[in-house]
Specification:
Shape: globular
Distance between the termini: 34 Å
Number of domains: 1
CATH class: Mainly Beta
Number of strands: 17
Structural class: mainly beta
Strand content: over 45%
């Protein structure tokens, strides 16, 4: 019997299991005192120091697909290790200078699902006079955080722009904003759109899927 073999050119589609929730801690390294400090359900983003895709979206770790939107994002190279005795969500940062140039970071979400979005803006070591961030559904902004007066060292702004004046207060009281996504991509752009002063620093971002109850979701991705 003759066998017919058909070759299909193009990209193969694969089922990829991704976690329902996204929990990212920004810092410079995952080594030494900062190695594996992330709690269960969390992972780290170390930007250009990451051996996986150089920190550029999309790459996957701990079931989460995320990264900086392009290799040209300035914050890609601005990760800092700050205080490994802090809660791991507040142990490091990355930042964008408020010069009118911005940086965009993204993560894969499920279109049609509603997420609670939590964040920590600030720095364990330094004060900041201006914090500016735009939360986006792909390229569509849906919430803008614009706080002049900023934060002292170890003070934090949550996703609503509310000041939490200590690590403990942020941990116990940080509030979320909510979004039902119309795309499969969450992005956050940091840095003021005009030249102001200082930097916008972010330590942590998380998205909790309030629609899914399955734990892991299968999403189709091209290899």
């Amino acid at each position: 019997m003759n066998k017919i073999v058909v070759f299909v050119l193009g990209c193969a589609l694969a089922n990829v299991a991704l976690a329902a929730d996204i929990n990212i801690n920004f810092r410079a390294t995952n080594a030494g005192a900062y190695a594996n400090i992330d709690a269960a359900g969390q992972t780290y983003d170390i930007g250009a120091n990451d051996l996986v895709n150089g920190g550029v979206y999309p790459h996957t770790r701990a079931g989460m697909e995320f990264g900086w939107n392009t290799s040209g994002e300035p914050a890609l190279s601005n990760g800092r290790d700050r205080d490994n005795t802090n809660d791991p969500r507040l142990a490091g940062i990355t930042f964008q200078a408020n010069t009118g140039t911005v940086s965009t970071w993204c993560a894969t979400v499920v279109s049609g699902h509603t997420y609670n979005i939590y964040a920590a803006f600030g720095d364990p070591s330094s004060a900041s006079t201006n914090t500016y961030a735009v939360f986006q559904d792909d390229t569509t902004g849906f919430s803008t955080l614009n706080v002049a007066g900023g934060t002292a060292a170890n003070e934090w702004l949550d996703a609503t722009g509310t000041l939490r004046n200590s690590d403990a207060t942020w941990i116990s009281s940080n509030a979320a904003i909510s979004r039902t996504f119309t795309s499969a991509k969450f992005c956050i752009t940091i840095g003021t759109p005009t030249n102001t002063a200082d930097v916008t620093a972010i330590a942590h971002i998380s998205l909790t899927d309030t629609t899914s109850t399955s734990g892991l979701l299968l999403r189709r991705r091209r290899n």
